[in-house]
Structure formats: C-alpha cells, structure tokens
Design goal:
With 117 residues, the chain is mostly helical. It contains three helices and two strands, in the order αβαβα. The protein is 56% helix and 5% strand. The chain is elongated.
C-alpha cells in the first residue's frame, strides 16, 4: 500500500468509495439469495484497491470476484449465506460511518484553522 501520494481526504474518499462498492456487492448477493446457481461475490481488499487505484485522482470501482465457498451452498448451487451477508452489511455500515465521521472532522478542523466556522 502506497500512502506517500495520498492525503487524508483522498484516503477517506477512496475508503468511502470502496465501502460503497462493498455494500453494493452485499446487496446484490442478498437480492440473488434464491437464484439457483448464483455464486456469492465480494470486492477486493482495501489494500489491493488502493494499489490498483494508484495515483489516479478518480476513485475507480473495486474489482468484484466470486467468494470462496466457506459456509457451504444449497442444493441449487447458490452459495449466498444470509447470515454472512447480514454480518458483512452491518460491518460495512459501521466502517462507512467511521470513515465519513473522520472525513467530516478533518474538514471541520481545516475550517477552524482557516478561521471560518
């Protein structure tokens, strides 16, 4: 992971984009929980996302890949486990809240240093 070229706002922005992509992946898994043959998907790790984003000023979408079948699948071949997806959604939500609060606090700190309220 290359932190040299990233400032706090870029890092927070990329984290929020990655978490948004992760939440989309979870919601697609939940929406397809009853589809025969559907394979659960997840986004790449945040470290890999930062490496692939490089020094670009635009945050790209995270790569989505099939999840390794750890919890087992159904007879229909569907590998979505609702309990796992619910835990993933809750974890993603709390990470998003933390990242957005850090972003907001950093912005407030800059405004107070600049003398603007």
């Amino acid at each position: 992971m290359n932190f040299e070229a990233l400032n706090l706002f870029q890092l927070a922005s990329r984290r929020l984009q990655w978490l948004s992509d992760k939440q989309r992946s979870v919601s697609e898994n939940i929406a397809n929980a009853d589809v025969a043959g559907y394979r659960a998907r997840d986004v790449q790790s945040f470290d890999a996302y930062l490496d692939s984003a490089g020094r670009s000023s635009v945050s790209p979408e995270a790569e989505v890949s099939e999840v390794r079948d750890e919890w087992g699948g159904t007879i229909s071949g569907n590998t979505v486990v609702m309990e796992e997806q619910i835990l993933d959604a809750a974890n993603t939500q709390s990470q998003y809240r933390l990242a957005s609060n850090l972003y907001r606090k950093a912005h407030e700190m800059l405004l107070s240093v600049a003398g603007s309220n």
